[in-house]
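#lab-general

N.A. 3:47 PM
ok so I finally got the sequence cleaned up, no stray characters, all 709 residues accounted for. can someone with queue access submit it? mine expired

B.Y. 3:52 PM
send it over

N.A. 3:53 PM
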Amino acid sequence: MVTLRKQYAVARPVYSEDSLAEDHNKVYRQNKTIVDHMREYLTWDLKRAKNSAVSLLPIISWMRTYSVREWLLGDVVSGISTGMVAIMQGLAFSLLASLPPSYGLYTAFFPMLTYFFLGTSRHISVGSFPVLSLMVGAVVTRLVPEVGPPANITGFEDLTQEQQRVLVASSVTFLMGIFQLAMGILQVGFIVVYLSDTLVSGFTTAAAIHILVSQLKFVLGLTVPGISGPLSIIYTLKEIFDQITSTNICDLVMSIAIMMVVFIVKELNDKYKAKLPVPIPIEVFMVRETLKADISLGIHPAFFQESAVEAFPIAIVGFAVAFSVAKVYSIKHDYTIDGNQELIAFGVSNIFGASFRSFAASTALSRTAVQESSGGKTQIAGLISAAMAMIVTLALGFLLEPLPTSVLGALVIVNLKGMLVQFREIPYLWIRDKPECVVWVGTCLGAILLGLDLGLVVGLGVELLTVVYRTQFPRCSVLANIPGTDLYKDRKDYTHISEIPGVKIFRIPSPIFFANIEFFRDKLVETVGFNPLRVLRKRNKALRKINKRLQKKEDDVTELFGTTDGSSMNVDGQERPSDLKDLPFRVDWRAELPVDVTVPRVDLHSLILDFSAVSFLDISALKGLKALKEFIRVDVEVYIVSCDECILEKLHSCRFFDEEILTSMFFPTLHDATLHRDSVKYIHVCTFYACNDSLLKTNPTHFLLFAVE
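B.Y. 4:20 PM
back already:
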């Protein structure tokens, strides 16, 4: 069946950028200065004050539209469901931070109290996250190792090892919150874009490996000291295998049984999630006992200097994960989130939580999925889940005894499934985008071997290298016309495509700057098949040879050709064509030349550069583009098409144009340039092959007369 396609026909003049500006008035915008921006920022009125208040307290905007009848029941059910998961994850993830399990309950409660008022996401569940817990735990074990004395820091005097570890964790969290709050105030929430989904996936997979290894000692019932730093995972595995014969069989069997039951029930939850009103809280049924805890206050500034290097990447990772998850659900439910306000919200939440001995808070995808899928509409569900954590901490604590760490370790390992299955992304990325695959593998291996903090730096470095690679070595292409249309596509991609004889259309698919300008020039020379500067030098040399030969025969010819005997170099050091304005003929360099005159043949007469994908040029690029003069000097017409307005403005402001590179070379579309080129007539007055080589040798005057004809 033939598909009927719509047709369109446009009749208009062939435009260059100059003629387009003549026919259509152009608006010249004046950019604001720094002073203008400062004046606008410091100018306040009632409307702006109101908007600022709503921006700083997002609860105002969604509370005004809250529907009690439609949303409250869903929020209550969601809060209870999420609260049970948050309690179990808080207890389990606290082990990753090398803290007693009860402190995970504080993380499920205190940060949520402030995020409720300051956060812009209505669906994320604020609390512990395994990757952050592990990163905090690395600082804790470095400053307060299980074996050996703690670091020599003021504030450790007369404290037990547990109290020292809690003090370190809360201080790191407090500093993390300060970093996040400062970034939010400085409006640098955009930094999260540098953590791509591929990098985060590789990083969290490496974190899952670290978490798995760290929990093996609890599952096996072994006493393995906490090890931090590069290659810590190797040393930890060595310690575990050295003690493997001392495995506590009871702990191992109980852990395996718990993992199997929890895994099966979680799979059933996923399979029947459409039919279940809420997921089955299997972790609650597996946990028979929890911990009693007392709340103690305070952080210690003396630890800030010792942990600042680790606290900054923890702040970045915590925000990146939370923002990524929040963005998914904001798109799904059609509302906006503000990255800078999220930084402020998490910064205040972590500062507030650290004051009450909680550790680093962010969000977990699995917990957020429970909150959203069970009917949660707003952060009232989060507030209810936090209240449940506090009830367990205070009201039910006297009924509970300490949990075996093997139980919590088993729960942690089961919850790693979502991160560990990300290994399946490797073949997918390798087939579809090899540089992205390199980012994933490089980040994952770096984080596994060097630790999460250094691994994040390695991942960012690899990601930066891939960006440099893509922009420094872009895929340039030669375009050709699809017959009967004004469309131009890569000539390698279509079978029936027409490449215009004597014309090359060269497309540059990236910005042009200092790192790729030489690559661009080399590719251009490779595309056209000749080096214009070399051709120009050969032509000048050939003309000097002819001039010298003619001078030997007649003195009057010397006067005629005197202008070609001098140097063809300009004062700027660039090769110039010999001055032929006084010659009685013109040379067609594309014709047959005398036997002893060797000049590379140039069949190209037009070069069109497609700048539609060029987003910016730097000064190095402008200097490099001056080399287009070399093509003009060997009689190749150069056209630049689809150039962005900002680039044209920069070319004018940088005085790019001169007597050779003209504004008339620029066209709004490829087809305009092609049609303009077709309308230009080339008149060849004379050619070398019109004379005989022997005639030139014997009678140069005859050659001149023949040429004039």
